[in-house]
Design goal:
Layout lengths: L15 E13 L3 E7 L4 E7 L4 H8 L6 E10 L7 E12 L13 H6 L1 H4 L3 H23 L3 E2 L5 E2 L11 E4 L2 E5 L4 H11 L1 E9 L12 E10 L3 H22 L1 H6 L4 H5 L7 E3 H10 L13 H11 L3 E4 L22 E6 L4 E8 L4 H10 L8 H8 L5 E7 H9 L20
Parallel strand pairs: 3-5, 6-10, 12-13
Antiparallel strand pairs: 1-2, 1-4, 2-3, 4-5, 7-9, 8-9, 10-11, 11-16, 13-14, 14-15, 15-16
Helix pairs in contact: 4-6, 4-13
């Protein structure tokens, strides 16, 4: 008898198979028991009929939530379920009995669920979130590999801040000071000078005391750097990339998105060619919409980003922010000295910035001056300056916050549900 996963069931219609599963839930009448089964690959209903085997029926009725077992049954079609199949159970072999499982089908508070995150991951919606997260990662690798990108692993421990901020986690590196990385970008620039188009994917850390639904202390960043690429070319790559992963999620995770109640029409519109507006025009738009709290030179807050993106009902690029509010490494605008060649991509529906990128300063003297202007230690950035001394070229890059992007794709209320074990201002357990 073939042992399969729930996900493989459509390939075995009419066959009797064996599946290792946990009991997610159950209900029964006097004659039939319906077992909601999960195995990590998916969820399916198992039907146990009393008339077929009374002892097995009694076993089924006595099972507790999250008991593990091997289930033997025939795969049949079920047009009433979103999965489209169910299992006519012919045998149950209990592996490990579970009793008093703390997360029952009733409503639980968020803090309780977060305290039991190691178990909450088993629920249908959290399972769906993790499946979509995995698909975004898989599609990213596929997209970049098809376009000749090389993965570069940047260090997590660094001697300085890529963006010159104080929102860093400090640690001791033997007898030196070190910080947990907030970005691998500077190292990716070195990689781009060696390998052309490169990317990294790993955890990043921000010691930012924020409690909003958009923020995590530890999150995963996808970062991309491209040699001989200027800013407008980078924006085209960002459009192509985001369209690719969204459409891949629609194609390969439609069932999971439906479980999460996502409005698929919102995602079906993501086809590239995103609106592009200047920072100047964004300020004008916000003032016209009654946002009197923001003026030229200010950074945008959540309400401002939401208003802009919802106006277009699509992701929108906001281009050319003021030099004073952006990091030292961004290339100056060719016609203005008060803005830089950069763009943030803002997602609609209140999810905020999901991509930030820029063309990088590639002139040695300008970069050296920028480092001094920002009060940074030139010695700490000597290696970064070397990249401009030896064969410098125009280059651009961008970073995408994975959890915030997955939250937007899935329609999740909070980014904490899009990472297996979130680290928040008040949470480092479990």
């Amino acid at each position: 008898m073939k042992k399969i996963t729930i996900q493989e069931m459509p390939k075995h219609l009419g066959e009797t198979v064996k599946i290792g599963a946990w009991l997610a839930n159950k209900r029964s009448s006097g004659k039939i028991a319906f077992l909601q089964l999960r195995d990590g690959s998916g969820f399916v209903q198992g039907v146990v009929v009393k008339a077929d085997d009374e002892d097995m029926f009694l076993t089924a009725k006595g099972l507790h939530q999250e008991t593990s077992m091997y289930i033997i049954g025939e795969v049949t079609e079920d047009s009433r379920s979103s999965f489209g199949y169910e299992l006519q159970v012919k045998g149950i072999e209990v592996i490990a009995e579970a009793t008093d499982y703390p997360i029952t089908p009733k409503e639980h508070g968020t803090e309780f669920l977060m305290d039991h995150r190691h178990l909450w991951l088993r629920s249908k919606k959290q399972h769906a979130n993790m499946k979509v997260r995995n698909e975004v990662i898989r599609a990213t690798y596929e997209f970049l590999n098809d376009r000749g990108f090389t993965k570069i692993d940047s260090p997590i421990l660094t001697a300085s801040s890529p963006e010159g901020t104080s929102e860093l986690f400090h640690t001791k590196y033997f007898d030196q000071d070190a910080f947990l990385s907030q970005s691998g970008q500077l190292y990716l620039e070195a990689g781009a000078m060696a390998l052309g188009n490169v990317f990294s994917f790993g955890p990043t850390f921000r010691a930012e005391k924020s409690k909003t639904r958009r923020h995590l202390i530890e999150f995963w960043m996808l970062e991309f750097e491209m040699a001989f690429v200027e800013q407008d070319e980078s924006l085209e790559m960002q459009e192509q990339y985001l369209t690719y992963v969204v459409q891949s999620a629609l194609k390969n995770c439609k069932l999971e998105l439906e479980v999460l109640g996502r409005d698929l029409s919102k995602l079906e519109k993501i086809q590239g060619e995103f609106p592009r507006i200047s920072y100047d025009d964004a300020i004008t738009f916000l003032n016209e919409q009654g946002f009197d709290d923001i003026k030229w030179g200010d950074d945008f807050g959540s309400p401002h980003e939401t208003a802009i993106a919802n106006h277009y009902d699509l992701p929108v690029f906001i281009k050319n922010y003021p030099t004073a509010i952006k990091p030292f490494y961004m290339q100056a605008h060719p016609d203005r000295d008060d803005v830089v060649l950069c763009a943030d991509l803002i997602a609609p529906e209140g999810y905020g910035e999901i991509i930030g990128g820029s063309e990088r300063v590639w002139d040695y003297d300008l970069l050296k001056a920028r480092i001094a202007e920002h009060g940074l230690d030139p010695e700490a950035y000597a290696w970064y300056l070397d990249l401009r001394k030896y064969g410098s070229v125009p280059h651009s890059g961008f970073g995408l916050g994975l959890e915030r992007t997955v939250a937007w794709i899935t329609g999740s209320e909070h980014v904490r549900e899009t990472i297996p074990f979130p680290r928040l201002l008040n949470r480092i357990y479990p």
